[in-house]
Amino acid sequence: MPRIPLCLVCSVYNASETVSLFLASILNQSYTYWVLYLVDDCSSDETLSIINAFPDNRIKLICNPSNLGLTRSLIRAIEYLPTDAFILRLDVDELHCSDYLFNIASLFSRGHDLILVTPKSYVVHISRILHKTSPRLLVLFLSLWGNCYSHGSSSYISSLYHSAHGYNKIFYLSQDFDLWMRLLPKASNPYFTASDKYISSQISRSTPSLSSSKPSFQFFFSLMALHNIFKRPDRLSFTRKVFFFAFFFPIALSIRLVRSVFF
Known about the structure:
- The protein has helices spanning about 20-25, 45-50, 70-80, 100-110, 120-135, 135-145, 160-165, 175-185, 210-215, 215-225, 240-260, and strands at about 5-10, 35-40, 60-65, 85-90, 95, 115, 155, 190-195, 200.
- By secondary structure, it is α/β, with parallel strands linked by helices.
- It has a single domain (about 5-260), classed as Spore Coat Polysaccharide Biosynthesis Protein SpsA, Chain A (Alpha-Beta Complex).
- A seven-stranded mixed sheet has the order 3-2-1-4-7-6-8.
- Helix 5 packs antiparallel against helix 6 (about 135-145).
């Protein structure tokens, strides 16, 4: 059995409907070398009392002084991690099979520095081919085609995260997608998979998430990640970014309409 210390990162806000099932699925893991960094973003329901009902010293509760939003909460959680951490980004509305953490740890022990999971096998084949050809081609494909990977089931090593300068605070949606677009060109040994043993199941909720209720904004933010095909996107002027976005917007919209019909 691998002995990779996994650092699980999750942000919660008014998650009383799902947090109990989520924590139960984590505590039920066959792999025990993990610590969960759970950020409460000023929940106003019973989320905190439910979390406190799980007295396990591997669950580290971090309470925000004010509501910071998902992106800033994730940034805050990662600040607590050791510099050599193996990071798993989780969502509170997902359940994982009992061997999920063991499977992720096994991939890390084989030298993979980035793990991305998708339910679509054709995306895995395309990702592997494009990444071997040029990682920036893969970034271009994913930006135009749309996010096909599960944002709550990504894993990466801490040094890779920091080399890409972490989450971008501007993104309150598609923050993980933007991060992957910067991780992919820097990853030396990424792993793409559509295997069932890495795919989580969604917990049904009575209220929709922000991303599902704002599809137009989701599209806008995911398209913003296109500028990561450049080696130094931070050096692009504002004018060039505007022209770049205006050029690719109709292309991406057309491609995603085709995808929604035929895929």
